[in-house]
Amino acid sequence: MTMTSSSVKISYEDVEVGTELPPQTFPVTRATLVRYAGASGDFNPIHWNEKFAREVGLPDVIAHGMFTMAEAARVVTDWVGDPGAVAEYGVRFTRPVVVPNDDQGAVIEVSGKVAAKLDDNRVRVDLTAMSAGQKVLGMARAVVRLA
Amino acid sequence: MALDQSFVGRTYPPTDPYEVGREKIREFAESVGDTNPAYTDPEAAKALGHVDVIAPPTFVFAITFKAAGQVIQDPQLGLDYSRVVHGDQKFAYTRPVRAGDRLTVTSTIEAIKSMAGNDILDIRGEVHDEAGEHVVTAFTKLVARAAEEEA
Question: How far is CA B38 from CA A134, B3, B35, in A?
């Protein structure tokens, strides 16, 4: 299938392996998780009930893995402009994002760089997502179609 | 308890259609703080070449994971869901999900593995629109952690 890519802000010719995407920082509080639970339909109590989370061996309430995956994607979609340019996106959930019950919550820091130039104006972007100094996603990769 | 390998390759019946609404997409985008106008403004989406507002890349997981419930809750498979964690997630898109889509999901068990007492289950969810065209495939790896050793 061919897609018009005139809507994409980044040109394939203008990127190289190693080109860095603008990094972003995403705050996450308990309120964020309650809201995401409602929007996504994932009401697993490990994401809002501290007592339950501790009972199943977690240090505290943790963010939904899919929430972290959604935030990491924004580094790619904000870069290209058109979220419809994403052809593939995958992650491994390696460590939980622990969200304490305070005003600060947690922070997810996401950076990305072009790891490979593929055919059909596509590039592979490798993402790094950190929280509290630890990698929370592994093998976080997106394939996007550029202009 | 190791899962029955004979379930590998099993495909479950397609789900009833899920109708994607503009306001559900807006709610999801707001819940992750994403202000890209392609998710909320039909004119902005059209300017990008889409027929209506599109959904963020991970939006479809809510639909495919619900469909995977057929597998997770299959009493014959016998997965202990209380011990399940989400291991990996991947999406391969033919096009973005958009408002007005009526999507069905067909779930298939791709692989069952046992490692160090953990059961690892790979589920593929093929998402099609009302015309039968492929929209996206979701690959979900679930890990059922081994029961803790008795003291």
Answer: 32, 43, 9
The CA distance from A101 to A81, in Å, is 34
| Residues 6 or more apart whose Cβ sits within 8 Å of residue A41 | B62, B66
Mean pLDDT of chain B: 94
Domain boundaries, chain B: 11-144
Say which amino acid occupies B86.
Answer: H
Give the residue on A whose Cα is nearest the Cα of B98. Answer: A84
The predicted model scores a pTM of 0.95
Residues of A in CB contact (< 8 Å) with B are: 1, 3-4, 6-7, 26, 32, 35-36, 38-42, 65-67, 69-71, 73-74, 77-78, 81-84, 86-93, 139
Q: For B11-144, which CATH superfamily applies? A: Hotdog Thioesterase (3.10.129.10)
Distance (Å, rounded) from C-alpha B38 to C-alpha B144?
A: 37
The DSSP string of B97-127 is -BTT-EEEEEEEEEEEEEETTEEEEEEEEEE
pLDDT reading at A104 higher than 60: yes
Residue B97 · residue B52 · CB < 8 Å: no
Query: How many CB atoms are closer than 10 A to CB B9?
Result: 11
pLDDT at A84: 98
ipTM entry? 0.94
Name the 3-class secondary structure at A113.
strand
* pLDDT value at A5 more than 80: no
Dihedral pair phi/psi, residue B14, rounded to 5°: -60, 145
Domains, chain A, ordered by start: 12-28+64-145 (3.10.129.10)
Summary count for chain B: helices (H), strands (E) = 3, 5
